[in-house]
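Exercise: predict the fold of this chain.
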Amino acid sequence: MPSLILFGIAGGLCATARNFELLLALRFLQGMGDGTLGTLNVTVIGDIYSGRERSAALGYNSSVLSVGTASYPAIGAALATFGWFYPFALAFLAVPVGILVLVSLRNPEPHNDQRFKEYIGNVFSRLRDREVLGLVGISLLTFIILFGPQLTFLPILMDERFGAPSYLRGAVLSGASLTTAITSARLGSLTGHFSGKTLLGVAFTLYAAGLLTVALVPDLWLLLVPAILFGVAQGLNLPNVFSLLNAHAPTENRGAGMAVNGMALRARLSGPCSWPPQPSG
């Protein structure tokens, strides 16, 4: 709840900033609130659900995130027509959500008598497990593919090779996000028929097929094919990785284990950015 309140107030106040220093300070505070949210939501799901129900719940969580990914750029762009600062005001919506969490969420807090040193030692002993390290690596690679080939390179390719207008670039990316949402929503059913490792293998096969297709397509509209392949792969992969990580973490250490995974993802996000592309010639 404090994370949502901090995220909402600091992020919403960015709409009032009229100099870069204030905007940067508010974004810093907003990031402090945001830093825990992606970890806490999957941790709470892991605390409440187990087994196939956990996979289904994490699938629904990923589905909602994908719908947001598909819709938020369009909403933000529409608000930005009135002024560059209006999209920031959307963050204020996190404040009533935080209040709703305070009064409505019934999360069974795990009992933990460990001292801090023992707690940290148990977390790092789990991280030495090769399967856990592999899952963290898969999670990191997933976001590298998402923010590299899919969200950064694909729009540049559509612009430079095919001269696609912005609305077509957005339509292709939104198609990938909606495909992810549909696939993620079906994860609970899929885990009833296939193991988590099998679904991960299928996901990365689809990633490879999507990357290969991007290099070969002769027509703009055929880029919908790799976008859909990326979307299905993402829908199979990410909630499945979170489910497997939850299963490996004991209840009393689950939050810290998921936080380490979240920190690895944000280490990827802190790297240099190649957007916007620089003009040539």
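Check your answer against the key: The chain has eleven helices and no strands.
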